[in-house]
Amino acid sequence: MKALILAGGFATRLRPLSCARPKTLFPIVNKPLLQWIFERLARGGVNEAILAVNALTQFYIRQQKPPKCGLKVRFSIDPPRKPLGTGGPVKKAEKLLGCKEPFIVLNGDIFADIDYKKLLDTHKRNNAMVTMALCSIKDPCSFGVVELNGEAIKRFVEKPPKGQEPSNLINAGAYVLSPEIFKYIPENRAVSIEREVFPKIVEAKRMVGCCIDGLWMDIGKPHEYLEANKIILDSLGSTIEKPKPNGFKVNYPVAFDHGVSIGEKSIIGPYAIIGKNVKVGRNVSISDSVIFSNVEIADGASIEGAVVGEGVYVGKHAKLEKGCIVGDQSKIKDNVDLHENSAVCPAKEIS
Ligand code: GTP
User: Fold this and answer.
1) Domain 2-218 class?
2) Residue 201 Cα to ligand 1 middle (Å)
């Protein structure tokens, strides 16, 4: 089975962190999201993944080379300066996907425990054109919401006004599609699959839903990204290697990648996810935060509820408060206090 992964969006809501990396390469507990996606697809019986990207995303993926997990990986590239949206890339990849078998399409920015075999079985049993993975959430109004009749989707409303949601079941961003779908997607332009294509398939009575029970997270906004890391860290439990505190204190859960060094009397955690080769000085405190690789944090700094991009320097006694996002390669000088929800562009110096 083939899968098309939509990964060519601009992740505007995750700026400035997304200025230098596509969403699908954001680390989730020190592993790129795309690797989590590949692993799950491979387990679900997929043997080929097609990445629907723009030229820059392709460049970053080729450079980072996340493990392919046994999948054959190909690229389908949006035309320059003409992003194709969530539907256009499906049409663009028509030849690569082929016209014989149903295939999977999924958003490259979701972390989801999807049983792809179950999704495919539901698809075949219903002779559907679209089978949408569904997830039940408390507040569905910022997602696509469905109304079901048995397994059939009776209605699909993209981002309904609050209070007018037909149910709590939302589009989990993963589908099985039959090749007939190509007839419903216009060529060579941006198409929203949710707004332009799905309503037509509902009308044709060929769209069904399949509920997923496991974890589901969208990492589209900074707080969602941070939350996803924390939830997944919790779910990994004892499978994650515990650091050996040597003069510093650890409040679990935490995750350390290779080459992390921590100075004396520092307090790490809970929920400190620290990337490769990060150097932490003495008397530093880090909690509820994701620190990307090659960051240096000087003595006495404190970081709480922040995301710190790759190669950042955090000066002595600097303070990063809740919701701060620091772009790659920035320098936060000594004694700087970054107030709640501050965002620092890549390569900036803040004094
Ligand atoms: P925001 O700008 O923050 O809304 O993010 P986005 O547009 O990157 O993501 P959105 O949640 O709107 O899109 C869902 C998925 O479709 C993501 O995995 C995107 O990477 C992907 N996607 C969105 N637009 C395009 C596009 O024009 N081309 C391709 N190939 N993929 C896209």
Assistant:
1) alpha beta
2) 22
